[in-house]
Amino acid sequence: MRPFLKEDPRLRIRARWDDEGIHVRGFVETWANNFPDPTANSYWYELSYDGALIERFILVSVDGSRAELPLPNAGTRDVQPLIYKVAQVFDELNTLDEYMTRAGLNVTNT
């Protein structure tokens, strides 16, 4: 899947859910495994412009792949605003905020 900006299709976010795109299979963190289905895996997402990599992000597939949550800052449950926006792009079921609340994740102001 490669969402892109309508006004400038050279700006794209690339996600892969195959072996090459996996960050951690069997991801283990209390916030990620505390759902009815405790299965979680993390995946790389790449923001690029005109084919040049700008930044890589990690989203965690939780509750048996029912939601993609942004990886919080290490040792916290705080999520940077940009990675939250990336997660919103892939929130096809419109459940991101509900899952973030259930996981205890918060978007930081900085």
Notes on the protein architecture:
With 110 residues, this protein is of the alpha+beta class. It has one domain (10-107). The protein is built from three helices and eight strands; from the N terminus they run E-E-E-H-E-E-E-E-H-H-E. It has helices at 30-33, 81-89, 96-103, and strands at 4-5, 8-15, 22-25, 41-49, 52-62, 67-70, 78-79, 106-107. Strands 1, 2, 3, 4, 5 and 6 form a six-stranded antiparallel sheet that branches. It has a two-stranded parallel sheet with strand order 7-8. Strand 1 and strand 2 (8-15) form a beta hairpin. The chain is globular. The N and C termini lie far apart (29 Å). The mean pLDDT is 89.
Tally the beta strands: 8
Terminal residue distance:
29 Å
Low-confidence stretches: none
Q: Sheet with the most strands?
A: 6 strands, antiparallel
The DSSP helix count reads 3
Secondary structure: helix percent: 10-25%
Mean pLDDT: 89
N-to-C order of helices and strands: EEEHEEEEHHE
Total count of domains:
1
* Strand fraction: 35-45%
Rg over CA atoms, rounded to whole Å, is 14 Å
What sort of overall outline do the alpha carbons produce when their principal axes are compared? Answer: globular
The assigned structural class equals alpha+beta
